[in-house]
Structures are given as structure tokens and as C-alpha cells.
Amino acid sequence: MRTAFIGLGVMGYPMAGFLSKAGHEVVAYNRTESKADSWTRQFGGRNATTPAAAADDADIVFCCVGNDDDVRDVILRETGALNGISPGAIIVDHTTTSATIAREIHARAAEKTVGFLDAPISGGQAGAENGQLTVMVGGDPDMFERAAPVIDSYAKAITHIGPTGSGQLAKMVNQICIAGLVQGLAEGLNFAERAELDPALVIESISKGAAQSWQMENRWQTMVDGEFEFGFAVDWMRKDLGIALEEAHRNGAKLEVTELVDQFYAEVQAMGGSRWDTSSLIARLKK
After folding, report:
1. This prediction's pTM
2. Exposed, middle or buried: residue 79 (CB in 10 Å: 0-12, 13-18, 19+)?
């Protein structure tokens, strides 16, 4: 496939690399041009000076940037991908955004006979670097069928959730579940330490039962050691939780625990932990 990849951050950089390794032609665009230069030196292909130029002649344009405004900027503005892409091509947005912007772009793309899939990802930096991401997709089934084999280059699981916006809504569910789980793990580990239990022995025991989770298996040790300079940043988690809380306000869902954990993450930010991994919730309990 002739592809373009817009946004070479900690997620997009390796994802675009897997596309290239799979044999797809990749044109890269990144706001910081030096990052695109570095990517093309490592993986080949070429870079473009604008999203529109990157999208020119592409069968599929992938996007992985920061938030709603960034997506609107690289897709819809004058030099955005939608003004360079050809009819019949597809835009796949891996950014975690609101369902509202996903539906807006879908409508604008349809006017140009361009397909659009909202396809947020889960798995963090490690998942991106190992090609083991989980992808939740909203959009037309025929567009999904065309794009899925290409997305498979960097994914371990790809699920078509439903119509446009469904992928973003599913990602909100993902973040809601993670927020409550990490807080529970933080409280449990802090309790174990204050009860003078050996956390390693406790985890060895309870991780074989119903309490087991990815967060427990992969984060308990660093949480106990107070190491958070890695992983998915608190700033990004608060952005994601804000999107979920706003959507809940619209649909009437009660997110009582999520609201509370969001406040706890605000406390972590005030402690200087804006860029700490989300497992840093335990830090506020150790004060």
C-alpha cells in the first residue's frame, strides 16, 4: 500500500516503522521536521513538508497526534491531509479524541468521497514499539475491511466496534476501567507496605487469582520502588479522562470513581508528576 503517517511521537514513530518493515510505502510528516528526517534515515521512505503533501497519492493516511485541535489542524486545515488526499482513499485516525471530532471529520471526508476510521489505540509506548497494540475502530465496515490488514502491521488485536465515533467511545471505556484499576492497585500496595507485608509475596499470591491484571503484572514493582519516569503520562491520562467525563455528561452515565481518580491525578500533577506514568497514583498515598 502507498501510505502516509502523520505524527511521529512516541507512538507514531514505531507504528510508522512497522508499516515500512511490512513493505508498505510510507511518506512521513511531523511538525518537528528533524523527527521526520530521523525516521526516514532509520526506515527509508521520504518525508513531506505538510500533511496535504504527505497524503498526496496515498491509499491510506494514518494520523496519531495529540488531541482534537491537533487532529483538526493536520486533517482539516488548508494544508491538511484532506486537501491532499485522493477520492477513494482512507484516513485512519489513531489519536484519542472525542467522538464529536471523529464524526465531523467523517462527514467532511465523505464530501470528498474519502473514507474515515476513528481507531484509537491501547498498549502504550511498549505496545507501539513491539507492534502489539490493541485497536478499537469506528466507521464503515467496508473501509474497515480495507484498512485492517495494513493496521495489522503494528497491532495484536483490531476490533470493529461500530459506526463512526464508536472507536473513540470504546477507548473512553478503556481509560475509565484503567483509572479505577490503577487506583485500586495503588491503595492495595500502599496498604500492604503499611501493614508490613512483603509486596513481592503478596503480588505472587494474589496475581494468581481474581485480582490479576496487566497493571499488576507490569507496574507493581515500579510502584513500590517509586519509579515513574516512563510510560503513559499523567497529562495524557487527564486529557483522556476529560473526554470521557464530557461524553458522560452528554449521555447521562455516572462516572463517580472516574471523577475521583481524575482529581487524584490532578494532585499528582501538583506534585510535579505531569509526565510521570499513570501508575504514579501511589505517590500521593506515600506523602
Report:
1. 0.96
2. middle
Report strand pairing: 115-118 vs 121-122. Answer: unpaired
Question: In this structure, what C-alpha cell is assigned to residue 161?
Answer: 466496534
Residue tagged 458522560 (cell numbers): 248
Contacts of 100 by beta carbon, 8 Å cutoff, 6+ apart: 68, 165
User: Do 223 and 272 meet the contact criterion of CB atoms below 8 Å apart?
Assistant: no
Query: Which residues fall within 8 angstroms of residue 219, CB to CB, at 6 or more apart?
Result: 182, 185, 277, 279
Question: Would you name the residues annotated as active-site residues?
Answer: 171
Which residue segments constitute the domains of the chain, with CATH numbers given? 2-163 (3.40.50.720), 169-285 (1.10.1040.10)
Cell of residue 240, nine digits: 483522556
Four-point Cα dihedral 110, 112, 118, 119, nearest 10: 130
Looking up cell 486545515, which residue turns up? Answer: 77
Q: Counting every residue, how long is the chain?
A: 287
pLDDT tens digits, residue range 196-253?
999 999 999 999 999 999 999 999 999 999 999 998 999 999 999 999 999 999 999 9
Partnered with residue 160 across adjacent β-strands are: 137
CB contact at 8 A, 100 and 74: no
Given a contact cutoff of 8 angstroms between Cβ atoms, the answer to whether 51 and 75 are in contact is yes
Instruction: Write down the H helix ranges in the chain.
Output: 12-21, 33-43, 51-55, 68-76, 99-111, 124-129, 141-151, 166-194, 199-206, 214-225, 234-251, 256-270
Cα distance between residue 176 and residue 255, in whole Å:
8
Query: Rounded to an integer, what distance in angstroms lies between the CA atom of residue 178 and that of residue 266?
Result: 16
